[in-house]
From TrEMBL:
It holds the Pfam family STAS_2. Gene3D superfamilies: STAS domain. Residues 1-89 form the STAS domain. This is STAS domain protein. PROSITE patterns: STAS (PS50801). InterPro entries: MlaB-like_STAS, STAS_dom, STAS_dom_sf. It comes from the Bacteria.
Length: 89
């Protein structure tokens, strides 16, 4: 799974999501994917939308995933939207 970049806004989200969905599609059955979010510093709601899209792809393949190093501000944004439980880690 490609790590989250330092910046993930509306401009960067589509390219990152394409790479992440490709990684999900290529993961072996039964895999647990780990997403490294430690570098993420600048983001908007597009980052949250991208993470939820990755979650849909992971669930559709019957895989597991976890997120390491998710910034507290992004967790807060997820809570505002009521989706914090969908972001593991």
């Amino acid at each position: 799974m490609p790590p989250l970049p330092a910046q993930l806004t509306h401009a960067q989200a589509p390219a990152w999501l394409t790479a992440a969905e490709r990684a999900v599609a290529q993961a072996p059955a039964g895999a647990t994917l780990t997403l490294d979010a430690a570098a993420l510093r600048t983001f908007d709601s597009s980052a949250l939308a991208a993470l939820l899209a990755v979650r849909r792809a992971v669930v559709a393949r019957g895989l597991a995933w976890r997120i390491e190093g998710l910034p507290p501000r992004l967790r807060t944004l997820a809570a505002v939207y009521g989706v914090q439980a969908l972001l593991p880690g």
